[in-house]
Design a protein that fits this description.
The protein is α/β, with parallel strands linked by helices and about 220 residues long. The protein has nine helices and five strands; from the N terminus they run H-H-H-H-E-H-E-H-E-H-E-H-E-H. The protein has two domains: about 70 residues, Methionine synthase domain (Methyltransferase, Methionine Synthase (B12-binding Domains), Chain A, domain 1, Orthogonal Bundle); about 120 residues, Rossmann fold (3-Layer(aba) Sandwich). Helix 1 crosses helix 3 and helix 5 packs across helix 9. The radius of gyration is 18 Å and the shape is globular. Bound molecules: CO-5-methoxybenzimidazolylcobamide.
């Protein structure tokens, strides 16, 4: 009999959203915690990326695979609405930087931050710096969470921090950066306040930057 991992990998690689949703439900029903349930899905989408890089997968297939991945993610981390009695540890303005439409990892970061009591305003993907700066004021953001998945768009994290530096906002807004090509050295070099390699650690980092500890 095929293992759940094999079935999940096939569903993602075939871009079969219906099957991915069913397998995500099964994983949760079997008692796995959301982050454990998510693991084989993340492994599968990364495998899709490897196939793409090797030329064995083309863009339409990658798009189908990410559609199935997003559908599974929606089951594992359904959007958490903030109720009135929710603890709000701070307002996070999140988005993937300009020129970059990768959203899956950023969505995961947003879902976990929301689940841990942060108010998250998600600006989506391909977000121009102007919009981040404008919304930071409107939303009274405490923390900007900037995701970048392309080596060519990491530089947008730097230019946004440079612009923030020149504005009076810098004193009141912290910046956390992340995304597959980003690391701690890059974060430090561009003057970011924080960095996290994955969504779970992004929550820890957000608490640290807000000067709070997990409840
Ligand atoms: Co694209 N893509 N893609 N892609 N894609 C990558 C990133 C790539 C590594 C694939 C490869 O070649 N192996 C490669 C980048 C190479 C590079 O720059 N070094 C690549 C490329 C080249 C491209 C295009 C340029 C392809 C083309 O058009 N020729 C194009 C770019 C479009 C654009 O953005 N302008 C493109 C397009 C796409 C799709 C649209 C098809 C789709 C995205 C769909 C979507 O999100 N709306 C897609 C996908 C799915 C991928 C891969 C396969 C998977 C990304 C993903 O969702 N991973 C990816 C290969 C890979 O990652 N191995 C690839 C799963 C996700 C859970 O992980 O996003 O890393 P990740 O997020 C993690 C951490 O990074 C971290 O936490 C998350 C969870 O633990 N994290 C943060 C993320 N953001 C954070 C923020 C934080 C903290 C932590 O604080 C703020």
């Amino acid at each position: 009999m095929e293992s759940a991992e094999v079935k999940i990998r096939r569903a993602i690689l075939e871009g079969n959203a219906e099957q991915a949703v069913a397998l995500a439900k099964q994983a949760l029903d079997s008692g796995l915690k959301p982050l454990e349930a998510l693991e084989p899905f993340v492994a599968a989408i990364r495998h899709a990326g490897d196939l793409f890089e090797e030329g064995d997968f083309f863009l339409p297939e990658l798009l189908m695979a990410s559609g199935a991945m997003k559908a599974a993610l929606g089951v594992i981390f359904p959007a958490t609405e903030g109720g009135e009695d929710r603890p709000v540890h701070g307002t996070v303005l999140a988005g993937t930087v300009q020129g970059d439409i990768h959203e899956i990892g950023k969505n995961l970061v947003c879902a976990l931050l929301t689940a841990h009591g942060f108010k998250v305003v998600d600006l989506g993907g391909d977000v121009p710096s102007d919009k981040f700066l404008e919304q930071a004021v409107i939303q009274k953001a405490d923390l900007l969470a900037l995701s970048a998945l392309l080596t060519t768009t990491m530089i947008q994290q730097k230019s946004l921090i440079d612009r923030l530096q020149k504005s009076e906002l810098r004193d009141r807004v912290k910046v956390m950066v992340g995304g597959a090509p980003v690391n701690a050295a890059w974060a430090k070099s561009i003057g970011a306040d924080g960095y996290a390699p994955d969504a779970a650690r992004a929550v820890d980092e957000a608490f640290r930057l807000m000067g709070k500890s997990r409840a």
